[in-house]
Amino acid sequence: MDRHTAQRQAIREVFQAARRPLSPPEVLQRTAARLPQVGQATVYRTINRLLEEGWLRPVLQPGGVTCYELAGLDHHHHFRCRRCTQVFDIPGCLLGDPRKRMPQGFKVEDHEVWLFGLCQACAKAAP
Amino acid sequence: MDRHTAQRQAIREVFQAARRPLSPPEVLQRTAARLPQVGQATVYRTINRLLEEGWLRPVLQPGGVTCYELAGLDHHHHFRCRRCTQVFDIPGCLLGDPRKRMPQGFKVEDHEVWLFGLCQACAKAAP
DNA sequence: TTATTAATGATAATTCATTATCATATAGAG
DNA sequence: CTCTATATGATAATGAATTATCATTAATAA
């Protein structure tokens, strides 16, 4: 049976409030702001449960930690700030039709676009 | 001082022959075809040296092992086969201008495009 | 050819993210 | 309210990639 706990509720609300992909340490930090005693094992366990439920999905960074975002968002891409390493959503799709450039016989099923640079806050702080 | 060894030469030739990014285990396997006694430590050490020399550059996969490719190739993107996990080059750039979709104040410096699906060999084998 | 010193190979150690363990706390059924 | 099974928190263990160690090998300067 599935019990409703303060930890799970808080972690869900953290993701809903973030509006961007979060890493497990980020989830821990934000959840601990409300439940200071929360442990990282609970964060990992809850993330895994929310993945199984289809409420979250993984965001696999090139050369970065795995983050998680709400499942069911519209197709979009991601931006990572090289200074603060936070990941942000870029709405819409930036990709042209890949098929015209593919080698013969390759079947494209999915794609990802990653943008890198400075986020608004870091661009101001380190111009 | 820099000594010329059969291992280094072989590893360089493996990268030049591959024409796609290689993971350290792939480099080890291909190098061992010529130098059966080669150790993985030598592969890692040599890759690091070739990176420092600017002869290789890292290819960081989303959710995959780090691969390496020849530095100085023209701008291109990458395809990963979900069946054999090999990475292939996609020549040219598939990206539209990202600036029109960026949130205010973000500075885009770089980008990556990843395509996923089945490579030619795997598409034939598992249709 | 010899001496020296960098490179190698085998393997131990490290790192970092994630998972397992287990005693305790607590949600929710009755 | 009481009971029981699930969830939690602290921490140990794991797994995978990479790096360090060190005795041995071998490239190259003299």
Summarize the main sheet of chain A.
3 strands, mixed
- Uncertain ranges of chain A: none
Helix content of chain A: 25-40%
CATH architect. name of the largest domain in chain A: Orthogonal Bundle
Straight-line distance between termini of chain A:
53 Å
CATH superfamily of the largest domain in chain A: Winged helix-like DNA-binding domain superfamily/Winged helix DNA-binding domain
Report the C-alpha radius of gyration of chain A, rounded: 17 Å
Mean of pLDDT of chain A: 94
Topology:
The structure is a homodimer of 127-residue chains.
Chain A: H1 6-18, H2 24-32, H3 40-52, E1 56-59, E2 67-70, E3 76-81, E4 87-91, E5 107-118, H4 120-125
Parallel strand pairs in A: 3-5
Antiparallel strand pairs in A: 1-2, 3-4
Chain A binds a DNA duplex (30 and 30 nucleotides) through helix 3.
Textual characterization of the structure:
- Two copies of one chain form a homodimer.
- The first copy, chain A, is an alpha+beta fold and 127 residues long.
- Chain A folds into two domains: 6-70, Winged helix-like DNA-binding domain superfamily/Winged helix DNA-binding domain (Arc Repressor Mutant, subunit A); 76-125, Ferric-uptake regulator, C-terminal dimerisarion domain (Dna Ligase, domain 1).
- In chain A, 32% of the residues lie in helices and 24% in strands.
- The first copy, chain A, has four helices and five strands.
- In chain A, the strands form two sheets. A three-stranded mixed beta sheet of chain A has the order 4-3-5. A two-stranded antiparallel ribbon of chain A has the order 1-2.
- The longest helix of chain A is centred in the N-terminal third of the chain and has 13 residues, at 6-18.
- In chain A, 26% of the residues are buried.
- Chain A binds chain B through residues 58, 60-63, 66, 79, 82, 88, 90-92, 94-96, 98, 101-120, 123-124, and chain B through 58, 60-63, 66, 79, 82, 88, 90-92, 94-96, 98, 101-120, 123-124.
- Strand 5 of chain A pairs antiparallel with strand 5 of chain B.
- Chain A binds a DNA duplex (30 and 30 nucleotides) through residues 1-5, 7-8, 24, 37-42, 44-46, 48, 65-66.
